[in-house]
Amino acid sequence: MPKPVNTSVSRREEPPAASTGPVDKALAVLDALVQPDAPHRLADLAARTGLPKPTVHRLLHTFAEAGYAVPGPGGNYQAGPRLLGLAATALAASSELRLARPVLDDLRLRTGHLAHFSVRDGAVAVHVTQSEPSSTYRMPLTAGGEVPLYCSAVGWAMLSALPSPAAAELLGGEPLPARTSRTVRDPGAVLAALPTVRERGYAVDDEYAEQDVRAIAAPVLGPGDRVAGAVGIVGLTFTLDEESVAVLGPMVRAAAGTVSAALRGGTGPLGIVRGQE
Amino acid sequence: MPKPVNTSVSRREEPPAASTGPVDKALAVLDALVQPDAPHRLADLAARTGLPKPTVHRLLHTFAEAGYAVPGPGGNYQAGPRLLGLAATALAASSELRLARPVLDDLRLRTGHLAHFSVRDGAVAVHVTQSEPSSTYRMPLTAGGEVPLYCSAVGWAMLSALPSPAAAELLGGEPLPARTSRTVRDPGAVLAALPTVRERGYAVDDEYAEQDVRAIAAPVLGPGDRVAGAVGIVGLTFTLDEESVAVLGPMVRAAAGTVSAALRGGTGPLGIVRGQE
DNA sequence: ATCATCGTTCCGGCTCCCGGAACGGACGAA
DNA sequence: TTCGTCCGTTCCGGGAGCCGGAACGATGAT
Questions:
Q1: Which of A12, A214, B35, B197 has the fewest beta carbons closer than 10 A?
Q2: Distance from residue A51 (CA) to nucleotide D28 (C1'), in Å?
Q3: Quick one: fold of B22-86?
Q4: pLDDT tens for residues A97-150?
Q5: Do B4 and A73 touch (CB under 8 A)?
Q6: Which residue did the predictor score with more confidence, B46 or B139?
Q7: Fold (topology level) of A22-85
């Protein structure tokens, strides 16, 4: 008796975003491959990317031949040495990142909170590096993670340093999804808050994205006042309480200013003499 | 049992890249895009990858649409936010890397030399992360950089932890190119030195790769004695002198042992092949 | 003003990418 | 042990879309 193929209506919305070109598919697989829950099985990668199984398999084979993925026993894959090398090179080559790191360490030491540096990708912020206190028993922030601009301190900070029309366009006209009961859902309200952020020099996220989590951030500006990213600290509300915001805010603002100044001043695109290769 | 004995040896590619598929070309462009001398002009990327100009342009356009590259004024490109996020995610997801970092910091503090962690990609070692002393006036090692196994301390360390046949295959039969006057060019001589490395627990590179540079390294072993990488220190010969090798060597060996133990013990992503004998 | 160089666009040819279907092995349940 | 299920892998014919030489406009140096 032929079993009916399980074609039940998926309860989960299909996120697949059918990429048109092979390069987009390759990027999708790479993105899935570096996710923290390694090693990855072929079926999982196919499900996550929404690509057909043979397609993912072929891409993984290509990656493996180039050293960007390494196949394990039982047909599971993980990030390969060349991918790790690429990642290390990319992070080392980013001048803002290289300059931000020591500032983040200093900021973490002086505030006791997790300090991080994020950059903007469209309407979301990507956390690129961070300095964690040893006492973090639960990490409210993951490296490489993303958070919408409208509900994060780093997001508001970067929005505040953008021209108003650009900020308005990024926020859109529709009501924004609520993450907590305190999320500011009205784009107009977010826009109205930006002048205050500009005046103070730092933005505060009061449980906008997650319950019991507060954050403070300030924008980092590169040459020509271009927004390069944002520096911020994150903590639970009962350690990063309302009173401390008044003293921590200026510290965050100063840290961001330090990075901005370093970006403008010292090391231009080619300030250093590199060895060969 | 078909064991994956895939030990691809050659991975060196020259400007006339023989990339057959579009995915390989995309990887080549990505690799060129993260190189330290940003921003990159289209013609440079085309020259570096050996690909035709329109092809590179099309790939960059695809990358830009996905946020993996960002076009600057005047038609130059640099790594985009998604690429930085991917890099951060990849490095954060690697358990060996996460475990190695604090050990490297400690090793650097106690030895005063640059400490680094490298993994193997075919017949070369890739430097994945490092902890630099502040006094480094010239960096003899770059993040994401590569060095052949046969002429580096980390290379010898990883070779020593491999089965002899595998090590022999990686070294090949031909005489190896000389990097300095002290480079060991005979594959047989390298193989003959490995038992000593195994016995002492660390390898020493006496100006094999570069003049006036000495290095010490020890292998890091994961579950099942699989080679996960190597921990090493690098310094100039007149600060990292011959007498200090005897005291620094065991420290490097101990550091590598710490990482190995942590890899085996604590935070295995999920113990899959625990029963495999 | 003139030219070399670069980034960008165009377009016809035909490569080789695509993914449904099938196969064999691994694992768990009965 | 046997059966059923699921997974990784391979195959293959059709046609989607990749390819790159050639051309065009912008830019900066001479």
A1: A12
A2: 47
A3: Arc Repressor Mutant, subunit A (1.10.10)
A4: 989 999 999 999 999 999 999 999 999 999 999 998 877 667 778 888 999 999
A5: yes
A6: B46
A7: Arc Repressor Mutant, subunit A (1.10.10)
